[in-house]
Amino acid sequence: MKIFPLCFRGVCLKSLMILLLILSVISPAKLLDSEERTSHNLSSGHRHAVRRIRSEDGDVIDCINIYKQPAFDHPALRNHAIQMAPSVDPSVERTMSTEKSPEMSSAAQLWRRSGSCPIDTVPVRRSKKASGARRFPARKKPTGTSKSSLRSAPTDEGDKVPNLLRVNRSVAILFTYGYNYNAAKGDIRVWNPYVEHDHEWSNSQVALQNGPYHHFESVESGWAVNPSLYGDRQTRFFVYWTVDASKTTGCFDLTCPGFVQTNQEIAIGAAIYPISTPDGLPYQITIYIFKDMITSNFWVQYNGVNVGYWPADLFTSLKLTVETVQWGGEVYSSKVGGGAAATPHTATQMGSGQFPEYMEDVSGWVKRLRVRDNSMTLKEPDWAGTYSDEYRCYNVRYVTDYVEDPEFYYGGPGRGFLCP
Q: What region holds the Neprosin PEP catalytic domain (predicted)?
């Protein structure tokens, strides 16, 4: 594992140069979009429900015929034949490592305690609106599409590093770039970070991306606390896609057609349970996004279960290759990035709300980081770099020494003594 530790005040200089070209492909803001479109897509699915399950957390799960799910409202998928399973079972894939997986506690979905969906149906969570929340954000709408939107480099002035890449968002990530990837995987510790305002959010994810920053294609999955999308502050499983930097295509979960579900056990957007606590077990979810090399569909695997896929017909460049893989956290708020308009900084947390701390193990982390390239072998990335937009608010730490497997720690409290 090659690491380039040339960093100044938390920002890796070589990594930063690469990031200015490619890292902005993480969409900056999950902003508001057409509620009417979202409502139409989901309500049409409710009419096809063969069973309804009310979860103890208040969610309603509709079990919908697999052939009548919202995905097929997309024009490119009108005649799509469902791929019920990957062409090759991911569980038998080769790996560079022979050691056994560490013993961890996997987080499940709370609604499964209240019932299950029949075979040949898929679980679809009904949307609900937070009290006082803005309209549902269906997609991550970009806040800048030109080089002029990139902010200046960090300076020693003030107590915050300016957001270098995009307006209204702050990331703390590990990334690898420049190879022909087709899959990525990571064990993500599950937390429930504090989100200060309904229109803000915090997530942790794995992302595969390709294309220029102003017109990239991306598939992403992980957990999120997003009040204006989900109507509450629970930690939830999400998927996201776009083919044009979120300008006109793509969205979260099933708020627009595109993602095809194939499994009746996992509901996209459902609450994750239990959640890690500082004095408790380190609950995690394992996210694996991989390209089916026969069909070119991109599958999402959640805790070893194949949930569904984004059909290749949705993409142009991403189905050919993946240039960038990223793991880590992201916060959206108008109060990030420095400057008068962003003061005071948001108190929305990332990860656990604690700065990265390896010894005490109370921060956000991603472990067992893996990529797959044309060798078709799951392995550690040959090169990895770390990056934080605001290291005094949300920081990063990549641990490679004295551990069997590299570990990435990230997160922070947002507003505080170091981040006013």
A: 163-420
Do the beta carbons of residue 121 and residue 52 sit within 8 Å? no
Cβ(275)–Cβ(192) below 8 Å? yes
220 is catalytic: yes
* Assigned domain for 105 exists: no
Other Cβ atoms less than 10 A from the Cβ of 72: the count is 17
Residue 101 DSSP label = P
| 3-state DSSP assignment of residue 17 | helix
State the Cα–Cα distance between residues 329 and 162, nearest whole angstrom: 18
Per annotation, catalytic residue among 200, 217, 220, 407: 220
Q: Is the pTM of this model over 0.90?
A: no
Beta bridge partners of 308: 261, 300
Give a yes or no: residue 281 inside a domain: yes
Domain that includes residue 73, residue range: 2-96+125-411
What tokens appear for 268 in the block? 């996209």
Catalytic annotation, pick one of 200, 217, 323, 330: 330
- 25 Cβ contact partners less than 8 Å away, ≥ 6 residues apart: 209, 211, 213, 216, 218, 245, 324
Beta-strand ranges (E) seen in 268-358 are 272-273, 283-291, 298-302, 305-310, 322-332
Paired with 407 in beta bridges are 367, 399
Encode pLDDT of 68-119 as tens digits: 998 888 888 888 899 999 999 886 666 665 444 555 677 789 999 999 999 9
Closest of 39, 57, 225, 50 to residue 126, by C-alpha: 39
Kind plus residue range of the DSSP H or E element containing 222: strand 217-225
Length of the chain: 420
- Answer yes or no: is 302 within a domain: yes
pLDDT tens for residues 108-118? 899 999 999 99
* CA 208/CA 210 separation, integer angstroms: 7
3-state percent helix, strand, coil for the chain, nearest multiple of 5: 15, 35, 55
Residue 35 designated active-site: no
Identity of residue 391: Y
Structure tokens at 11: 């920002």
* Number of domains comprising the chain: 1
Distance of alpha carbon 408 from alpha carbon 396, whole angstroms: 7
User: Is 416 within the bounds of a domain?
Assistant: no
